[in-house]
Automatic annotation (TrEMBL):
UniProt xrefs under Pfam families: Glyco_trans_4_4, Glycos_transf_1
Domain of life (superkingdom): Bacteria
Classification of source organism: Bacteria, Pseudomonadati, Bacteroidota, Saprospiria, Saprospirales
Leader sequence segment: none
Protein known as: Colanic acid biosynthesis glycosyltransferase WcaI
Alphabetized NCBIfam families for the sequence: PRK10307.1
Species the sequence originates in: Neolewinella maritima
Glycosyl transferase family domain boundaries: 216-375
SUPFAM superfamilies per the UniProt record, alphabetical: UDP-Glycosyltransferase/glycogen phosphorylase
Domain Glycosyltransferase subfamily 4-like N-terminal: 15-201
PANTHER family referenced in this protein's UniProt entry, alphabetically: SULFOQUINOVOSYL TRANSFERASE SQD2
Length: 417
């Protein structure tokens, strides 16, 4: 196939949407597809363009994929309004690459959301050439902006919700990464049969079980007797990460316990300042670790924190959980009963569940795990990752779906049925 992918995040970003889009595009190219990507320079999760990519437009080839980079505005402090400006600056700058491509044939166009509005740019290609345009939703951005209070202006939310609803009905197909997100999309007027579940995955060549002795513990100065509670991922506002500091303060009575926070993001400076003000000697911050050390990094932990605010339920699916499961780690997950994340963890014994935004529950869950009382909660983690999250299987199935769609000239919906 000849595939065009349109998304604001892409490799070599190590976390988040860019990592998955980069791996997907490379998989398609390795399978023989001709793949082009229109994207931005790497800036996430630091919210700062990588030094090697500063400047204007550039074209490069990564793992057989033609990557077209567009300059954009990257705010130093992320607010609702500044994020809108950031995303629209990417749309405007990307038109330089899009305009000539409206006159070139493609078998498939994949738009990666967020930003939710990218399919607006791709739809003219469908109208001109009948090219299928698939909207792959990693986060339900408009819902999150509303429910997390990122955007508070009712008139602006109404405009965004109407624009999103129109797009969902105008593209050829919609895919999402969880069943909870599928049901959220259904509430926007689509039928469940009109959506495809395309979950995130684990690369077994990079993420696999590692013995504690071979983990990163010694590199960080820890002994075997020490206990590590790890949070690794985006340090943003969706997770409610201040609860880590509060529970660390309560667990000062455990002298060999350390909370390690790894990552970058808009909330990092604030969290570091709060930890210093609270004189938390049992909390340390580390930068993102190299990808080839990710398995060793995750294996260093006795407990992994997977935190989300209550309002984020079924709006995003924490991608960090897939890697934790692949190393056989014990995840402490904040999720409400009835959400997709809660049901998934409980049904398959993937970790310990506690109520979101409840420091008492978080403290109780941690103490029980560290005492050994909740060991069976995560008994199914490694098996689930092996059976359900294999990168090759997930991407091969999705590519087959796209290939059949283009060859049979069926609609996305009729093919799925």
């Amino acid at each position: 196939m000849k595939i065009l992918i349109y998304g604001i995040n892409y490799a070599p970003e190590l976390t988040g949407i860019g990592k998955y889009t980069g791996e997907m595009a490379a998989f398609f190219a390795a399978a023989g597809d001709e793949v082009e990507v229109i994207t931005a320079p790497p800036y996430y999760p630091r919210w700062e363009v990588a030094e090697a990519y500063r400047g204007g437009y550039r074209k490069e080839t990564l793992e057989g994929v033609t990557v077209l980079r567009c300059p954009l505005y990257v705010p130093t402090e992320v607010t609702g309004v500044r994020r809108i400006l950031h995303e629209f600056s990417f749309v405007l700058s990307s038109l330089r690459y899009w305009i000539p491509r409206y006159f070139r044939p493609y078998d498939m166009i994949l738009c990666i959301s967020p930003p939710f509005h990218l399919p607006y740019v791709a739809l003219p290609h469908r109208w001109l050439h009948g090219t299928p345009v698939v909207n792959h939703i990693q986060d339900l951005q408009v819902d999150a902006a509303r429910d997390l209070g990122i955007i508070r202006q009712p008139w602006l939310l109404r405009i965004l919700e109407s624009a999103e609803r129109w797009l969902l009905h105008s593209v050829s197909g919609v895919s999402t990464i969880s069943t909870g997100m599928q049901h959220k999309v259904v509430k926007k007027g689509l039928k469940l049969d009109d959506t495809i579940l395309f979950p995130n995955w684990v690369d077994k060549e990079l993420i696999y079980p590692v013995a504690k002795a071979a983990s990163a513990r010694r590199d960080w100065g820890f002994e075997d007797e020490d206990c590590i509670v790890l949070y690794a991922g985006n340090l943003g506002e969706k997770q409610g990460l201040e609860s880590i500091l509060h529970v660390a303060q309560r667990l000062r009575d455990m002298p060999r316990l350390t909370f390690v926070i790894i990552g970058e993001g808009g909330a990092k400076d604030r969290l570091q300042a709060e930890a210093e003000a609270m004189q938390l000697t049992n909390v340390i911050f580390k930068p993102l670790q190299p990808l080839d050390r990710l398995a060793a990094t995750l294996a260093a932990a006795d407990v992994h924190l997977v935190l989300q605010k209550r309002a984020a339920a079924d709006l995003v699916m924490p991608s960090k959980l897939t890697n934790i499961l692949a190393v056989g780690g014990h995840a402490l997950v904040t999720a409400e009963a009835g959400t997709t994340l809660y049901d998934l963890v409980q049904t398959h014994r993937l970790g310990t569940l506690v109520e979101p935004e409840n420091v008492d529950a978080l403290e109780c869950g941690l103490r029980e795990i560290l005492s050994g009382a909740r060991a069976q909660d995560a008994a199914g983690a490694e098996e689930f990752a092996s059976a359900k999250l294999d990168k090759e299987n997930i991407l091969a199935d999705f590519r087959l779906l796209l290939t059949l769609n283009t060859k049979q000239h069926n609609s996305w919906n009729s093919l799925h049925r």
